[in-house]
Amino acid sequence: MSSRDELGWAAVKGTTGLVYLFLLFPLLAVVIISFQPSKYPTFPPEGLSLTWYEAFLDSDRMLSALTNSFIVALGASVCAGVVGTITALGFVRRSFPGKNVLSSVLFLPMIISPVVIGVALTAFLTRMGMQKSYLLLIAGHTTLVLPYIFVTVRAQLYGFDRAVEEAAMTLGANELETFFEVTLPLIAPGLAAGMLLAFVISFGEFTATQFWVQPATTTAPIEIYTMVRTSITPMINAMATVLMLITVAVPLALDVLLGKNLILKSGL
Predict the structure, then answer these.
(1) Residue 217 in contact with residue 68, Cβ under 8 Å?
(2) Do residues 106 and 147 touch, judged by C-beta distance below 8 A?
(3) Is residue 199 part of a domain?
(4) What does the alpha-carbon distance between residue 22 and residue 106 come to, in Å, rounded to a whole number?
(5) Which sign, positive or negative, has the C-alpha torsion 153, 142, 63, 223?
(6) CA distances (Å), 149 to each of 11, 81, 209, in order?
(7) Is residue 108 part of a domain?
(8) How many structural domains is the chain composed of?
(9) Contact 53, 72 (CB under 8 A)
(10) What is the pTM of this model?
(11) How far apart are CA 89 and CA 76, in angstroms?
(12) What is the model's pLDDT at position 225?
């Protein structure tokens, strides 16, 4: 490699490092400020303390918001996993009129602004008589994350060898037994990757959620936004740090439990 090429690669690496620093420094600052003992945020902090984490753990309001986020994210990822898998099976295994158009429609939640989806779904479900509740939140988040599971499972199914299913049915298994004992285990990496992505997206979703919550179902991102509007204390940084930790820890934990390189196994 010539000196010019080496200089070019050094410039690329340096630029990449600066971009990552620009993106990650605000997050690092939030984490550092969450450990300061004083009430008013300063950077760099005057010292290190767990005071605001203790205040966070003593706050029923914040723990309730965090619990709500868990419930909604888990419910949405499970519902989207079931619906997305059935939908992907139908699109891959069957041909029907308007298939390509309907496939494009399924990706609209990834394209349309969450504000539009939030307003539209609120108006639609309200006219149906559904009040703001966990059910509405889970239904809304399922709508938002469904495309991610659909695309991961569909990608897994396109590379699926149906001869395995045919062999199982030749040996006496019915279609339901074949699905649960043969098909589902083989598409599990794609399904798990999609549900994991759905959980993370739902857990941190704010824009559309603000149209669907009520005081009893306030989620962690909504609670942080509310606190920022009223008062800024390092407890907000403590809660934000906990959210970041959960967002990173959940994928890593599932990757260990379900096998290394889960995303790569999913075919994405």
Answers:
(1) yes
(2) yes
(3) yes
(4) 34
(5) positive
(6) 38, 6, 20
(7) yes
(8) 1
(9) no
(10) 0.80
(11) 20
(12) 84
